[in-house]
Specification:
Elements (H helix, E strand, L loop, with lengths): L1 E3 L2 E5 L6 E4 L8 H14 L1 E4 L6 H9 L4 E9 L15 H8 L16 E8 L7 E5 H7 L2 H7 L3 E4 L1 H7 L20 E3 L1 E3 L6 E3 L5 E2 L6 H15 L5 E4 L6 E5 L3 E5 L9 E7 L3 H4 L13
Parallel strand pairs: 3-4
Antiparallel strand pairs: 1-2, 2-3, 4-14, 5-16, 6-14, 6-16, 7-13, 7-15, 8-9, 8-12, 10-11
């Protein structure tokens, strides 16, 4: 463990991540945050137990990492009136929650990929509902030289519309959830250099499809094989939530997914998404690209 600026930092038993305790995030000064930001770049996932941030405090903390893609949004199966959405209803919120159970980077389907996210737990089920992260830098490092050489020049399209359709979770006709308005999907390299660490990372996950130059079948097989290889110990961490927990992760390095739970049980999380820098996270669509939905 390391103690600095009043924080105690304990690395996770994985290739990334740390648990950080000792201070309220809402009260730290610029020097403490600058140190924390450096730890974040090094460890990619920071877990802060027992913070119980208000909405305003969470937004303010997230903004210290950069401008927001969006300030805060619930990821919850609880309606405003307190009732719980049942999986069988198949409403748009439930479809989003189910889709989030596949490995992904946030906003790779948007023109500018997100930099990171702050996530807080408010109500958690007795069992299940954890979040897992996977280290795409360590995954790239673990690839054999032949596979690295094979994928280095390749790219893939990214589309939320495609990934939800593949999972059988397309929205009802006339409904356009966040991320579905992108008609020409961005084309992103499978291997990307992190703009602040200069290390290579895989950019894959459920939103990726249609590698140019490969058949649809070969593209799907390659992407699935890379994801299965990448998301293995010691490159994976599963966090069991306790109300009041706050985490911040580097979306440029990590993929993540929600774990299933009994959706008759409430789960209320708040998500603040940090916008990516267009200079490093923008990906233009290829000429004539279209969203595949089958």
């Amino acid at each position: 463990m390391v103690e600095t600026h009043g924080f105690t930092t304990a690395p996770l038993q994985a290739t990334f991540g740390a648990v950080v305790t000792g201070r309220r995030l809402a009260e730290i000064d610029e020097a403490a945050f600058a140190w924390l930001y450096g730890v974040w770049l090094d460890r990619a996932l920071l877990i802060f137990p027992g913070q119980h941030l208000t909405r305003e405090e969470q937004v303010a903390f997230a903004r210290r990492f950069g401008p927001p893609e969006f300030e805060i949004a619930p990821l919850s199966n609880v309606r405003p009136d307190g009732s719980v959405r049942a999986t069988a209803e198949g409403d748009e919120v439930v479809k989003t929650l189910l889709g989030n159970m596949g490995w992904h980077h946030d906003s790779t389907y948007m023109p500018v990929q997100a930099k990171g996210a702050v996530f807080s737990a408010h109500v958690v089920p007795a069992e299940g509902g954890e979040t897992e992260w996977a280290d795409m830098r360590a995954a790239y490092d673990a690839l054999d030289p032949a596979t690295r050489a094979q994928i280095e020049p390749l790219s893939a399209f990214h589309s939320l519309r495609h990934s939800q359709a593949r999972a059988g979770l397309s929205p009802a006709q006339g409904v356009t959830p966040y991320g579905f308005g992108v008609d020409e999907p961005p084309l992103r390299p499978l291997v990307k250099i992190h703009p602040e660490t200069d290390r290579r990372n895989l950019v894959i996950g459920r939103h990726a499809y249609g590698v140019p130059g490969l058949s649809a079948e070969r593209s799907e097989r390659l992407l699935d094989e890379l994801c299965a290889f990448a998301c293995q110990p010691p490159r994976v961490w599963r966090h069991r939530w306790t109300p009041g927990d706050v985490v911040v992760w580097d979306n440029r390095r990590l993929m993540h997914r929600a774990c299933p739970w009994d959706m008759t049980q409430p789960r209320v999380m708040h998500h603040s998404r940090i916008a990516g820098d267009p200079a490093s996270e923008f990906a233009a669509p290829a000429a004539g690209a279209a969203v595949a939905v089958g």
